[in-house]
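Dear colleague,

Thank you for sharing your sequence with our group. We've completed the structure prediction you requested, and as agreed, I am returning the results in plain text so they can be pasted directly into your records. Please verify that the sequence below matches your submission; if there's any discrepancy, let me know and we will rerun it promptly.
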Amino acid sequence: MKIFLISDNVDTQTGLRLAGIEGVVVHEKGELKDALNNALSDKEIGIILITEKLSFEFPEIIDDIKLNRKQPLLVEIPDRHGSGRRSDFITSYVSEAIGLKL
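Please find the predicted structure tokens below.
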């Protein structure tokens, strides 16, 4: 099983390439669709990493894959600028899920 990265910046791609993970850098919706189609057609890829910025910019593409495909696993990762989420993201997520204030 291989891991593949789709990033919006070269720094993230370079860092993960040093760890042995291949990937591409995209900036536009068409480029993202092409990169995802290529990754989805490769049966050896089991995990696709995608930067949070891309998933926030094009949620309809990402949500479609997450909801309609079992494989590969699509994982959103922060890039070098950090996470786009609030600092209390996990606490609020758990509170919403179980209905308790933590």
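Summary note from our side: The chain has five helices and four strands.

Kind regards,
the structure core
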